[in-house]
UniProtKB/TrEMBL annotation:
Pfam families, per the entry: ATP-synt_A (PF00119)
Protein name (Swiss-Prot/TrEMBL): ATP synthase subunit a
Keywords, comma-separated and alphabetical: ATP synthesis, Cell membrane, CF(0), Hydrogen ion transport, Ion transport, Membrane, Transmembrane, Transmembrane helix, Transport
GO molecular function: proton-transporting ATP synthase activity, rotational mechanism
Transmembrane stretches, start-end: 6-23, 44-65, 85-110, 154-174, 180-199, 268-290
Any one GO BP annotation for this protein: proton motive force-driven plasma membrane ATP synthesis
Tagged with keyword Membrane: yes
Length: 295
């Protein structure tokens, strides 16, 4: 009985919103430049319609399918494992392979179709590609200075891969970046480049000497600090990506049958914008640590 009352109330609320909006729009017709105060009626009536329709639709769904069973969320640090052609692998590895395969196919298509037909005046896809390359080159050069050109391809690859990981969540899949083994692999790769460029530019003696500045007393502390870099990078990326996953699961559980519209809006942040921020932070820290090792 309570469900019927809520449905009727939501329907009346929606009708009232439509009537209010019609009256508000009629008042604005004779005004050339309405003020914010005069626009409030149309604005508030629109929100009233949206609220009424949301409650009406979600309540009808709940009436038809019943209330969802209450439960608890279980989030595992380790991802699920599946059998893939006789191999028992984690889903994060499988999704990572899929992302890499897509990126390779796109790269081959661009190499065969776009690169041989480059124009002096870029248009369309060439323009987008050149803007992306110029942006990453400028950014790596400004952050890593003389190593910018060498690091641009690596940074661009990591960034595109993490963007691909972010978009897997839009398809209801767990992002590979929420697996500590994947973030650890990326962090170890970054750690390798930090020391590779450090030893390449300064040599063994110069690299060790830089770790002992300003006094030899800090040498063991600097060693521990450097060893903590991959742990920090891996944990930061893993924690943030897993946190976004947990928040979305909590939102779906809290809303139940009313999970319409709101998760989509929240997903734009937690499944798209937030992972992109984490990708940018990871790339920036990578370049910063490499720059510090070569200065």
């Amino acid at each position: 009985m309570s469900d019927i009352i809520v449905i009727v109330a939501a329907a009346l609320l929606t009708v009232a919103g439509f009537c209010w909006r019609k009256i508000a729009c009629a008042k604005l017709k004779g005004i050339e430049k309405p003020t914010k105060k005069e626009k409030r009626g149309r604005k508030y009536s629109t929100w009233l319609i949206v609220l009424g329709l949301y409650v009406l639709v979600t309540q009808l769904i709940q009436l038809i399918f019943g209330k969802p069973k209450s439960g608890m969320i279980e989030v595992s640090i380790a991802t699920d494992r599946v059998n893939f052609f006789g191999l028992n692998i984690s889903t994060s590895v499988l999704y990572s392979w899929g992302i890499m395969a897509i990126l390779v196919v796109v790269a081959i298509i661009l190499r065969l179709t776009l690169i041989p037909r480059l124009k002096d005046v870029p248009t369309g896809t060439q323009n987008v590609l050149e803007i992306a390359i110029e942006t990453i080159l400028k950014y790596t050069h400004s952050t890593a200075h003389s190593l910018g050109e060498f690091m641009a391809s690596y940074v661009f690859t990591i960034a595109i891969f993490l963007v691909g990981c972010a978009f897997t969540e839009l398809f209801g899949l767990r992002t590979p970046a929420s697996d500590i083994t994947l973030t650890a692999a990326l962090a170890i790769l970054t750690f390798f480049f930090i020391n590779f460029y450090g030893f390449k530019k300064k040599g063994l003696g110069g690299r060790l000497k830089s770790l002992a500045q300003p006094t030899p007393i800090v040498f063991p502390i600097r060693i521990l600090t450097d060893l903590a870099v991959p742990v920090s990078l891996a944990s930061r990326l893993f924690g943030n990506m897993l946190g976004g996953l947990v928040v979305m699961d909590l939102l779906y559980m809290a809303l139940g049958n009313r999970a319409i519209g709101i998760p989509s809006v929240a997903g734009l942040y937690f499944n798209v914008f937030h992972p992109l921020i984490q990708a940018f932070i990871f790339v920036t820290l990578t370049l910063t640590f490499i720059n510090e090792a070569t200065e």
